[in-house]
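Give me structure tokens for this 182-residue protein.
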Amino acid sequence: MEAEDLVAAVFPDQLACPENLVGDREIPDHPLVNQTIADCLLEAMDFPGLKRVLEGMDAGQFTLIARDTTEPSPLCHEVLNARPYAFLDDAPLEERRTQAVITRRGLDVKTADEFGKLDQAAIDLVREQAWPDPETGDELHDALLIMGAVPSAEAGTHASWKDKYDSLVGAGRVTTVDGGCG
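Here you go.
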């Protein structure tokens, strides 16, 4: 209670009802407020480092790659788990959508290893289902255009391609490249 009284005395807008505030919040020039902001921006958040990264992104100094991942990145994990400090409303923790995100960082090593393990039979089934099954030479040509290149060892496992592939080679629509190393 004493801490709340101190905050009310030093930074009244922080505890004021948001509906009663007009305009932007005024941050008072008080040593406690200044020290708290400095601690948050410099020690907890490394704001100068964040600013350098954002400026580098804006200047094109970094290659940005979007990835779909099975779990949040370390940065996202920290944002999701900032819990009471990152949210200004008073919604209960269990009602937050951030609680719906599953992270493995809280699991023991054995559970995390088992959680991410894939069944080889499932992998083989998906590969077989994803592999094109063209009925005509044109369909094979379209599939090869989408795939870009197919290792001859993999293409050779599908005998149904042989006649269609040979006709495409004869028409000059595909070619075989010897990828020997040496």
